[in-house]
Design goal:
The protein is α/β, with parallel strands linked by helices and 488 residues long. The chain is 42% helix and 13% strand. Helix 9 packs across helix 11 and helix 17 runs parallel beside helix 18. Bound molecules: zinc ion (ZN).
């Protein structure tokens, strides 16, 4: 028996695919990682603490405060941040009893690391330049442990323009948008960025011993479609690495680029109330039909993002299986039906020891109001936010009342309970669930209004009851011990 060349190549490809096993997104998951040894603390109560807070107030006073006032038993100390300012004097949430108003703090690492973990990347020098040789692990962990508290490193990898100025070569790993322009967000398919992220995990687990009890990892990022739906007009990434990956998956780069450019034009027209036939959702759907590569590229981005997290988790478990390694899930999970479809809790069962859910219900009011306005400026421009809200609540599975009242009322405590319950059910006991309990979490300065909901002690009580009533394994008092001012 013999085959012509084309058939032979096709058969070889089919055989290779079978031999390699199912691709991501197909049915069969990887065998579970053994996690019997993970030391998850019972009654987990954590709080995030920024680098400058330790400098401003001193280590012992902060530990005293959070232990006595919040019953906190686990510190999430920033070991890497993306830049922030201290609280502003006239900012949205003045904290009269502590904190310091003031200057911009650049980002980077707040701990010392051995360069040997970063041989494989061009990102080698990323110490935050602001605090001299301050090392949050050495200076805080022993004192926390002396009080019976656990010390987790909080490795937050949001995009921040300031990092380009702090970290040599950081701009080199940035995403490239559909118009060929560099952005400020690093690309998860760039090998140097991947090596940087894994080097950090190694440096925390191998470079330190008993000081580090666990790692919380975060990156509040979304794919090009999610971003464009929320008003960002620079869909990315179309760098060489992403293009190569797309070609390997049979996705046309040129058609994806054409689709995203058309999408930018549509949403710009929606923003300007200019659409010839006056119907926006139909036009949006027509573009998806004409350019299914829009969705393919979104999935390519999301798979890359999630794959990096799975790789970091697998590596952390190989190094220190007993130390909890978990992830922050940003609030878009509860606002954005498109993002929720991509961030599937069931897929985390084998890829996380815990999840912190950003269920900030008080800030959630203004934040959701802004989000609805953004959707009604793009995909759902056929509706006003007032008309959109009842439909949205049905889709998302909660009800926060009329759009007009969202800013002043925030979201009800039941929102915390409903999202917690959903996560608990979907991870099926494989992952600890820690909802974030909102204690005056801010909204972006540009989105803040004077009448926005402020948190009361009773709000906190209700949210905690809602979280534990829904089966939470602990909570993260949110968002920070001292909040930041957002002007970065
Ligand atoms: Zn890329």
């Amino acid at each position: 028996m013999f085959f012509d060349r084309r058939t032979f190549v096709r058969l070889c490809s089919a055989f290779a695919a079978v031999a390699a096993g199912p691709a991501r997104g197909q049915t069969k998951p990887a065998p579970p990682i053994s996690r019997g040894a993970v030391k998850n603390r019972k009654n987990f109560v954590a709080i995030q603490v920024r680098g400058y807070a330790w400098i401003d107030e001193g280590v012992e006073p902060i530990l005293d405060n959070i232990q006595k006032k919040g019953n906190v038993n686990t510190i999430w100390a920033y070991t890497f941040g993306y830049g922030e300012t201290r609280l502003q004097k006239n900012g949205p949430i003045p904290l009269p009893d502590h904190g310091k108003s003031g200057d911009t703090v650049t980002g980077g690492a707040f701990y010392a690391y051995d360069p040997k973990y970063f041989h494989n990347t061009i990102l080698k020098d990323f110490r935050c330049p602001d605090y001299g040789d301050f090392n949050v692990i050495e200076q805080v962990a022993p004192k926390a442990k002396a009080r019976g508290m656990s010390f987790f490193t909080w490795d937050l990898n949001n995009a921040g323009a300031i990092l380009n100025r702090v970290i040599p070569n950081y701009a080199e790993v940035a995403e490239v948008d559909v118009y060929g322009r560099r952005t400020i967000a690093p690309c998860f398919n760039h090998p140097d960025y991947q090596a940087f992220l894994s080097g950090k995990v190694e440096s925390l687990l191998l470079g330190y011993g008993s000081e580090v009890d666990g790692i919380a990892w975060g990156s509040e990022r979304m794919g090009p479609l999610d971003n464009i739906v929320q008003g960002l007009r620079t869909p990315a990434c179309f760098c060489g690495f992403c293009q190569q990956k797309a070609r390997e998956q049979g996705i046309s780069v040129a058609r994806a680029q054409a689709g995203y450019r058309a999408l930018v034009e549509l949403f710009q027209a929606a923003h300007d109330n200019q659409r010839p036939d006056g119907r926006y959702f139909v036009s949006f759907w027509r573009l998806l039909l004409r350019y299914p590569e829009i969705l393919s590229w979104e999935t390519l981005w999301t798979d890359s993002f999630q794959s990096v997290q799975e790789q970091l988790y697998g590596m952390a478990k190989a190094i220190a299986p007993e130390k909890p390694f978990g992830f922050h899930i940003m609030q878009s999970m509860t606002f954005n039906p498109f993002y929720r479809a991509e961030e599937d809790y069931t897929r985390r069962r084998n890829g996380a020891d815990f999840l912190k859910l950003a269920t900030y219900n008080n800030a959630g009011g203004p934040r959701l109001a802004v989000y609805m306005e953004e959707l009604c400026n793009s995909v759902f421009h056929d509706m006003t936010p007032q008309e959109f809200a009842p439909w949205f609540y049905k889709v998302m599975g909660y009800d926060a009342g009329p759009y007009e009242g969202l800013r002043a009322s925030g979201l009800p405590a039941s929102y915390v309970g409903e999202e917690t319950r959903r996560a608990v059910e979907q991870v099926a006991g494989e992952v600890q669930i820690y909802p974030g309990i909102d204690i005056n979490v801010p909204v972006l300065n540009r989105d803040a209004h004077p009448g926005d909901k402020k948190t009361s002690p009773d709000d906190v009580r209700q949210a905690i009851h809602a979280a534990f009533g829904a089966g939470a394994n602990g909570v993260v008092l949110s968002r920070e011990y001292v909040e930041c001012g957002w002007r970065i």
